[in-house]
Amino acid sequence: MLKLDGVTKIYKVGAFGGKTLTAVDDVSFDLRPGEVVSLIGESGSGKSTIGRMVLGLLRPTGGSITLDGARAAPGKAYYRQVQGVFQDPFSCYNPVFKADRVLRMIKQEYFPEVASTEWDGRMEESLKAVRLNPGQVLGKYPHQLSGGQLQRLLIARALLLDLRFLVADEITSMLDASTRIDVLNLLADLKARGLGVLFVTHDLSLGNYISEQAVVLYRGRVVEAGTTDRVFGNPLHPYTARLLASVPQLTTRWDGVPVVAADGPQEPSALVEAEPGHFVRRSPVSPREGAV
Questions:
Q1: Are 214 and 40 in contact (CB under 8 A)?
Q2: In this structure, what DSSP letter does residue 269 have?
Q3: Minimal CB count within 10 Å: which of 114, 115, 142, 189?
Q4: pLDDT tens-place string over residues 58-73
């Protein structure tokens, strides 16, 4: 199990670092194998910062991140089990490396003892697992592949390791609608095989589509968490309710009425269990006019 317990991230800002900015504040949740947890919130809520801390790209200021009870220590052993896929697939590749070289770098770093012929077989299996035709992908440069193919290639690369957890940070935001659903269905298939996915998104409909658990962030703090059905079906925090109210409906035209957004400081109150498995932060929210 991957566990975040009271994780906090504070940046020094301003001239000479004289001020501080709390990007993530006392965030706790668990991610289990075979489970998708959606981390939901608007831009600037701390979602990607949490994902980067899980991946060891940022060091928490406070709290702990543990894997099977041991403190997460970024290195080969950790990255065999925890990997990430990011929003812009084009920025994740060296433009002069072909796809097969990208995959063979995993062998050089983690499995140097594996014979080349065996590794070629593993590459083909991982590509087929993400619904890519090896003959249409291997030997191609990144600019010769679509965004959807590049995202699936990143997932195939992660699958070549002994992967247990995947951080998927806004991985569908740059894809068209048809490709987006293909990637989501791929994550659902991998979840059925036992992969745990931290699905970072600002799109509530996608979080509702794919996840069992939902964690709603506002200004770096968890305001509501629980099973996706309960959080989406019976939102208890005003901010969650306003986020859901802002989702466009195919059957309803936008009427131009501004959505009331949550704003203002929150009291540092703890999450309370309002219903079994459904947690909400009981703190006042000062409304203002504006779109979420």
A1: yes
A2: P
A3: 115
A4: 999 999 999 998 998 8
